[in-house]
Structure formats: structure tokens, C-alpha cells
Amino acid sequence: MIEFATALGLVLVIEGLLYASIPGTLKRVALQIQGLPDNALRMAGVAVVAAGVALIWIIRSISGGS
Question: Would you state the pLDDT for residue 64?
Fold first, then answer.
């Protein structure tokens, strides 16, 4: 549970840094996303999830974590 809370905290930190450092760019990206078809967004989401799982697996394999 501690790892989950830490991961959630890191997500919030990264997201907050983006909003603080490049708010105009994020607004433009949000407008562009509205024009994309649902399937494109869905596939992008699946790809990001897969990349995240792979990254976690690689890090845990290298560090010897469980």
C-alpha cells in the first residue's frame, strides 16, 4: 500500500510540474485531443499502460525487488 501511495504522489508531482511549467502547451494539447477519434485515444492509453508495466517490470528485475 505504501508503494501505491508513493506512486500516486509521484504522478501528482509530475502532473503538477507540467501544469506549472507549460500551461499554454497543455491547453493546446487538450484542444488537439478533443479532435482525435475515441479509438486513437484508447490505443494510446493501452500503449502507455503497457509501457508503464514494462518499465516497472524492468526496474524491479534490475533492482531485485519482489
Answer: 82
Domain locations along the chain: 1-35, 37-66
* pTM > 0.70: yes or no: yes
Distance CA 27, CA 65 (A): 38
State the Cα–Cα distance between residues 57 and 27, nearest whole angstrom: 33
Quote the CA–CA distance of 66 and 12 in Å, as a whole number: 25
3-state per-residue secondary structure call for the chain: CHHHHHHHHHHHHHHHHHHHHCHHHHHHHHHHHHCCCHHHHHHHHHHHHHHHHHHHHHHHHHHCCC
